[in-house]
Amino acid sequence: MKLSDYFRFCFKGIVQRKTRSYLTIIGIVIGIMAIVGLISIGVGMQVYMDEQIGKMGVNKIIVMPVPPGGGFGPSAASTYFTDRDAKAVEKVRGVDANCYMVYRTSIITYKDIDAIAPVVGMVPSIAEDAYFDVQGYELDSGRDLEDKDTHKITIGYLTAHKAFKVGDTYKEIKIGDKIEIKDQGFKVVGITEEIGNRDDDMTIVMSLDDAERLFDVSDEYDFFFVKVKEGADSEDVAERIRDKLEKLRGEEDFSVMTAAQMSELVGSILSAVSAVLIGIGAISLLVGGVGIMNTMYTSVTERTREIGIYKALGAENNTILMMFLVESSLIGVFGGVIGAVLGFGMALGVELVGKEMGVGLLHAWISWELAAFALLFSFGIGVLAGLLPARSAAKMHPVDALRHE
Asked: Residue 52 belongs to what H/E stretch?
């Protein structure tokens, strides 16, 4: 039997039972769409995070307080670093610079319109060497902060262009405009280029002295951004920082992470989330596979006499088996092609919505490898789901099949 004969048999079966075939294909489409879309978003987030963390460079270490009971990040901390901690870190062998920062979230006002943004206070000269060079900050307009600046700020791209909305339009901020933070006016001297992460693109940077006065804090730092000397091993320096601070503070109520450690941590979290989401998509695909099996069993029953005729004309069991396997695999492939296209479309849609909402973490990963995986997977589901019905058809006795009503 020629290959074209197999396909002719298959297309005849699919066309004769259009509604049932279409519904079966839809089941595969939903499963493949879910898996492709979720894998695309999951891998896209991982790639994006690796890129962002990679901007830190191998010679950077982040030190953050960890409050009792857990939590992560400056906003979660109930304890802070002090000047004594900052000086101790600076003296650790292998440390080139330590950028100590005050980090708060505050209401900001421009032309009587309110928004919420992260506000970071740091020493500009230290930050220039230890922080801004790795965070992807590039000025779009204006200038960088200087140590002598008072009541002056640099703002992120979103703060400048999309933070203050009136009706359907945004009030854009220009160099020289003033923004109120906690009823105090600050002059904008610099606007950074878009980074792609909402927090970074909303961040307002001011001098450490201004931040301490604004938030009424002293000798309290939310995190350290440490630059390692050239030639020093970041892992070794991180361990020395950890030992030094633990002895100084009496307990390890802080975290010390290099770029590699942060990448590993984020990767494990995203992998776990992706595995759960893909598992949900796999359940949908399993349901689609059951749908193919049900359709093929029905097809075998309805075409029993046709099978008998083929056998009477000399068709072997393997020929009958292949006829139904090709049909079930084609149903799987049709669903896989449509599902892959819709899955990529869903991922791109999520990325666009994320960008509109300022969630830079959501990225789609589009690749031929994922498309090939989807097609092979759907083909395999089709073959496995059609195997039992095909064997049932192949084992039929020609005489019994011809007598079937």
From this structure: helix 18-54
> Which of 394, 400, 292 lies closest to 336 in space, CA to CA?
292
For 213-222, b/e burial (b = at least 16 CB within 10 A) is: bbbeeeebbb
Task: Provide the strand spans (E) within 33-138.
Answer: 60-65, 95-110, 113-122
Instruction: Say if pTM beats, i.e. exceeds, 0.70.
Output: no
Q: How far is CA 58 from the centre of its chain?
A: 22
DSSP secondary structure letters along 234-270: HHHHHHHHHHHHHHHHSS--EEEEEHHHHHHHHHHHH
Can you tell me whether residue 295 is helix, strand or coil? helix
> Position of tokens 């449509």?
338
Torsion sign over Cα 386, 392, 397, 402: negative
List pLDDT tens digits, range 42-67.
888 777 777 766 666 667 888 988 76
Cα separation, 297 vs 287, whole angstroms: 15
Task: Identify which of 274, 386, 369, 39 has the alpha carbon closest to the alpha carbon of residue 266.
Answer: 274
